[in-house]
Amino acid sequence: MRRLALAATLIFVIASQAMAWSAAGHKFVASIAFARLTPAEREKVIEVLREHPRFQQDFIEKLPSEASDESSKNEWHFQEAAIWPDVARGFRGDDAKYNHGTWHYINLPHFLNESDRDALNGKLDINISLVPPEKPIEQMNAIQMLRVSRKMLSDKSTSPQDKAIMLAWLFHLVGDIHQPLHSSALFSKNLFHDGDRGGNRVLTVQHRNLHSLWDGLPGADATLRTAHQEALKLIADVDLAKLGETATAELDEETWLNESRDLAVNFVYSPDLMAYLRNIEQEGGKELKPFGFDEEYLRAGGKICDKRVVQAGYRLGAILKHIAN
Description:
Helix content is about 55%, strand content about 0%. The chain is an all-alpha fold.
């Protein structure tokens, strides 16, 4: 009921830009990871993060008053690292170099109809390569960037500043790739010949669009204390904790991608939604009106989000342990 109420609140309140999980979801992931580390391991992660070129502006100067002791300050830094690549979207001037839009997602193609698959497959101008370059480049997708960041964090020749930036992207992208709509895009000949941009072009009654709806299911934003409490509540659930423990056995990014892809195809793009879009496609795709989801979908979506946030948090924690040891 908590998740259903939250989803209902989103219908009327949230109007933020779609950018992966909203801030709350990323903070929950970070706080779950924080809870999985020892104090010594947390400090080693913070040591890396302190070399961030914008640590003073984006971490120290934004430290909330509720971060009153060393542990809460460190947890807040974890949370801030997890949202920093989204914060960077607003940077201007020289600092705009930190904003990289394509690094947040990968658009594995999902087709509205089999005829669309036949017509478009192999002709789409999208980067779905899972092979990372040696160093970060502008047009990478989320999986490539995750793999680059992990490689650079383990490389002793990587500069301290670059390691700190890579660490922030690691925090963020582990969360991103567990959001189902960061794995896929819907394509069709009329409506979405160049893709629906991970649901951003699918208008919905409950929110501006499908992507924004899923971004916000964990919540819009959260204070340090709220995110801390929510993370503890999630991992106190026996079934979710078991799911998280099991998830740590799968630390390859392609596995996470395939999980999100399956959820996108088999749940997010629901049969009712697909039927609705197919009808519009048959009419030439001229008028796309908002689609309304029922409470059953929203309730099930909330439960899926809980699971994905916990899986992401446990996996991030496992990776951070490797970095700290």
